[in-house]
Amino acid sequence: MDPTYIRGCFQPSLPKMASNSVDQPLEFERSIKAIADSSNLEAVPSKFNIANDYTALPSDSIPLLDFSSLISADPHQRTKAVQDLAEASRVWGFFILVNHGIPESLMKDAIAAVRDFFNLPESEKKQYESKSVLDSIQCGNLTLVNTSNQSFTFWREYLRLRVHPDFHCPHHPQHLREIVMDYSKKIRELYMKIMEAAVEYLELDKHYVDQVLKMDSMAQMVVGNCLLTFLINNGVEGLQIEHDGKWFNVQSPPNSILVNVDDHFEILTNGRFKSLKHRAVVNKERERISLVVLNTPAWDAIVGPAAPLVDKDGSALYHSMEYKQYLETSIAQSRLGGKSFFEQQLIIQDI
User: Are 206 and 196 in contact (CB under 8 A)?
Assistant: First the structure.
């Protein structure tokens, strides 16, 4: 069976330190939260210092998609919503989902439950320390290597849970299990409706897509590359996306869900929908909690451009690969500042 994952991310605000402090060795076995909460911290360890410019422009142009229109019985209203979905996926690769039907109270409870997990003692979280991207429950932080072979750790702590078709969850906090189960189920229902609309726009046979992606054993993946990602946060913004060569800050209305097209949806559509670069930045004053549900093909599905679309276009623009292999390889080859594994899947056409 193929897994479904849900991810919670914790980004503490940067600790206040003396201006003349210098980098000092720390016990890196401690979580980022423990380091940030330390009462005697004199400097942020150098391994967290990633030299990048994270300035971005404000944006109110990210499309809003009314989910109630997408499932409307009014054919004109639904047709317009399908067109809006396609346009957002083609131009921005992101859209803000409103009127989605998930209670605001459940979304707040989900964020609170994730925060409660990060507040657990270090000894309890350590038992879920990540050993493999395929682990059912994972807790830790992400370290990448840049093109100069320097190692950097992100100022972020994560929790990853496989919740479908087999459900996995830490024993504590006790309320986490029920909340995550309810929330992830509702996200799956949204995902299936959105996929149905996208497939309709692409004029693909729904059964063809279900068969190719093995939707009966679909996964909601945590990391790597996926089809649609659903994100909420605790009201502290920090996500930025790249559009037309510029970076923009994402500001989502209350009780909305940010959805983005990910790499494999771009591959499936042979480039019609776009997976844009995005990043999360640290808020200097407030901690940021985000809860992400990523929906992917089954792990043993071979994902490539849909054959009917390749026939229309005359050629495939991307290589095909088993999703599990893609996931493992893309993480193993992740580098700061280098070409992503996804970019390597683009077929260079001979002219």
Answer: yes
Spell out the domain ranges in the chain.
5-14+48-344
Q: Among 41, 19, 22, which residue's Cα sits nearest to residue 32?
A: 41
Say if CB 218 and CB 298 are below 8 A apart. yes
How far out from the chain centre does Cα 305 lie? 22
Residue range 265-274: average pLDDT?
94
Angle between helices 175-201 and 75-91 (to 10 degrees): 100
- What are the two backbone dihedrals, phi and then psi, of residue 13, each rounded to the nearest 5 degrees? -70, 160
Full-model pTM: 0.83
DSSP 27: -
Q: Are 250 and 239 contacting, i.e. CB atoms less than 8 angstroms apart?
A: yes
What is the mean predicted confidence (pLDDT) over 320-331? 81
Q: What architecture (CATH level 2) is domain 5-14+48-344?
A: Sandwich (2.60)
Specify the residue for token string 């210092």: 49
Orientation angle between helical segments 175-201 and 104-118, nearest 10 degrees = 130
